[in-house]
Amino acid sequence: MITVNNILKSYNGNTVVNIPQLTSRQGEMVGLVGNNGAGKTTFFRLLLDLVRADKGEITSNDKNVATTEDWKQYTAAYLDEGFLIHYLTPEEYFYFVGSLDNRSRSNVDEFLKNFEPFFDGSILRSGKYIRDLSKGNQFKVGIAACLLREPQVLILDEPFANLDPSSQLRLIKMLKEWQDRHPMTVFISSHDINHITDVCTRILLMEKGRIIKDFDTTADTLQELESYFKV
Amino acid sequence: MIIKLLSHQWRAFWRSRSAGKNLAAQIFIGFVVLYLLACALFLGLSLQHFLPQFFPGQDIIRVFCGLILYYFSIDILMRFLLQELPVLSIQPYLGQNIRRRQLVRFLNVRSLFQFFNLLPLFIFIPFIVTVIGHAHGPLVAACFAISILAITLFNHFLILYIKRKIIINSWWLVGFLGAIGILIALDYFHVFSFRALSTSLFTLLLQSPWLTVVFVALGIASLVNNSRFLRQNLYFEEIARRGRQRQTTEYTWLQQWGLTGELVALNLRLMLRNKRTKALVMMTFVILLYGFIFYKPVYLKSEHTPMILMGALFITGIFIMGYGQFLFAWHSGYFDALMSLPISIREFIRAQFMMFIAIGTLTFVVSSLYGLISWKIIPFQIAAFLYNIGINSVVVIYFATRSYKAIDLTRSATFNYQGTGMSQWINMLVVLLAPVLLYWGLAWAFNSWVALTVLGLLGLVSLLLQNWWINWLTGQFQARKHTILAGFREK
Q: What is the strand order of the sheet A63-64 is part of?
């Protein structure tokens, strides 16, 4: 599905991302872990062609993401609040995103009913613009807008960071259920190694732009990660 | 304390991310400012020789007195358009152990570093020292000079106050513009004469110099009023935002154009829901009044009249210029998202063209009322309108693909009036200058009608080539996409 070939990105001589080879299969849940500055977000930006790689290429369905735009049809991402249009109400934002895939308003409304428990009553019909929502609620809007697109590739940067504990668990449950019904390739980064080993089937451990470990999740994975991050 | 805060400002200016990139532009602006000041000084020094030529046989001191109020009413309009509020640089200090009084004083002092505050020194003081000092003695001259400075301060803090009020409540804008409009109309139709008022006021000052106290009191009152307002509102952003119910609005009529329609709807919401862009929409309407300044009978009578064309370009094109120059930057807050959603940049640009044409047409239709003054204005407006939607819209979008600075729409809601500064106006001058020069040349070589026809036809042909332009602009954008994205991410 997604193939990385010799990708290299540096800022002012500091290598931020340096991945010689990486392939992800369809329907795989890939978790990225690593301390700040490991290059997780920059890697996501490269996947979305939001920064230009110094070297190498990334392909999605065998097409280079930097020279084609087909991947936009089936890829959804939420990296930070910069992915939300802050002066719209949540409903307007959902309708806008839906309209890009030719979905009608009623279709979007119908779809959003699935999110009622996740939204917890504080997003739809809240009478607020997105900019006035709390960070956690903004995140919920972003994630819901991604799933609304029914993507084949989903990219989420630190989805657990701003959510309250019950929303974190709901998100994990939702992602798993969604994956059963509608297989997609998921990239998630997180500092929460408990959650990420719970959700993901494959873990990439990043350090200073490199992938230093790449393994499928097993019962020992959590322990292995804990020993890496131990101070 | 104030010195410390000011030194932070100084560093903020030199260390801002744009400082290095736009050094050339800043040097250019520096030269323009120096040039304008030199002109002002020259004007001030030679006022005593100019005035007798323009007003022969009249007492030049009386004439001078008559012009002062005119100057200050133009001053207040210019300040309204150009003067920037001190940027919301105090936010990081609000949580520190610094008294509010000090912060307010800092904001006031910071705001004084203004081109407009220097101008009267250069224009008025030479005349006051030489002519008035000679005729009425040094004491009167000193009082006169102090009065001029006091009025400058009065204007300075008044406009800060009004601008801050407008940010909170847009009705202040309507009120301010209404008042200005009425005053201009009264003077224009000779119901009431600024000049007579100004003459009697300032000749009175010459006879009884103690009246300076009144002006100084006015200046101080304006300062105190502004400070009081600031003290009470230093943290209004936390208070004012809460509890406003926001509504989901529908533009169903736009849905028939599919994605382009959705993008137009997005732009409409952008314009109407952010203070910064709202100010721009208001400006579009204000500029409609510029006709009273540009369409003077003197110009209408002469053979070829670039001034009329200038006015017509302004009136029918201000929106295109103002909105277009930040075409992508308006969306900088979420540009990453737009670039990863399935929106082609071609559609995005097409939507902008649609909006430019719609709003350009609206301003054109409304401003056609100027035809009531003289039918001669209409051909100018048609030519300017066609040129604006045909050529200037392309030029402006091209420049937008070269602007890498993000605009923070949300922050402008508080103390920030960024955007209507000098550099934008210089940019705008270029867009205005090309057609005016073209007109001038053609009108000089042939006549005004030929010049207007050529301008209008150029616009029309370019308009018919719009699809080609859209493809070209898309290519321009794609070539610089990553630079734009990187620039927008640096806030």
A: A14-24, A2-11, A55-60, A63-64
CA distances, A6 to each of A31, A47, B171 (Å): 20, 13, 59
Distance CA B37, CA B119 (A): 7
Please state the pTM of the whole predicted model. Answer: 0.64
DSSP string over A81-140: GGGS-TTS-HHHHHHHHHHHTT--HHHHHHHHGGGHHHHTTSSTT----GGGS-HHHHHH
Q: Which candidate in B264, B275, B340 is best for mutational testing of the A interface (most A CBs within 10 A)?
A: B340
Of B391, B450, B371, B244, residue with least CA distance to A132: B244
C-beta atoms surrounding B369 within 10 Å = 11
Position of tokens 């260390």? B15
CA distance B326 to B323: 6
Q: Cα(B67)–Cα(B193) distance, rounded to whole angstroms?
A: 11
State how far the Cα of B272 lies from the Cα of B275, in Å rounded to an integer.
8
Judged by CB atoms closer than 8 Å, whether chains meet at A87 and B409 is answered as yes
CA angle B181, B163, B327 (to 5 degrees): 90
CA dihedral A4, A10, A11, A14 (to 10 degrees): 140
Q: Distances from the Cα of B349 to the Cαs of A82, B78, B387, B474, in angstroms?
A: 21, 33, 18, 8
Q: Are A199 and A172 in contact (CB under 8 A)?
A: yes
When scoring B278, B334, B346, B489 by the number of chain A Cβ atoms within 10 A, the one with the most, hence best to mutate, is B334
Strand residues in chain A grouped as ranges (E) = 2-11, 14-24, 29-33, 55-60, 63-64, 75-78, 153-157, 185-189, 202-207, 210-216
Sorted by sequence, the CB contacts under 8 Å of residue B66 that are 6+ apart come out as B195, B196, B198, B199, B202
Contact between B313 and B438 under an 8 Å Cβ cutoff? The reply is no
| Residue B263 with chain A: CB contacts under 8 Å | none
Q: Which residues pair with B104 in a beta bridge?
A: none
Residuewise pLDDT in 10s, chain B (491 residues): 777 778 777 776 666 555 555 566 667 767 877 888 888 888 888 888 888 887 788 888 888 888 888 889 888 888 887 777 765 566 666 666 677 777 788 888 888 887 788 888 888 888 888 888 888 888 889 999 999 999 999 999 999 888 888 777 778 888 888 888 888 888 878 777 888 888 888 888 888 888 899 999 999 999 999 898 887 776 544 334 444 566 677 777 777 778 888 888 888 888 888 877 877 787 788 788 777 777 777 677 776 678 888 888 888 888 888 888 888 888 888 888 888 888 888 888 988 888 899 888 988 888 888 887 778 888 888 999 999 999 888 888 888 887 777 777 765 433 333 444 444 566 677 788 888 888 888 888 888 888 888 889 999 999 999 899 999 999 988 888 888 888 887 76
Q: Which residues of chain A are within 8 Å of residue B344 when distances are taken between CB atoms?
A: 69
Facing residue for B333 by CB, picked from A50, A79, A82: A82
ipTM over 0.90: no
Q: Which two tokens stand for residue A207?
A: 């350090």
Q: Is the separation of the CB atoms in A205 and A225 below 8 Å? A: yes
Contact B274 A87 (CB under 8 A): yes
Burial group, residue B172, by CB count within 10 angstroms (0-12, 13-18, 19+): middle
DSSP 8-state symbol, B96: S
Q: How far is CA A116 from CA A112, B8, B290, in A?
A: 7, 48, 53
DSSP state at residue B147: H
**Among A69, A10, A61, A67, which residue's Cα sits nearest to residue B339?**
A69
Pairing assessment for the beta strands A29-33 and A185-189 based on DSSP bridges:
parallel
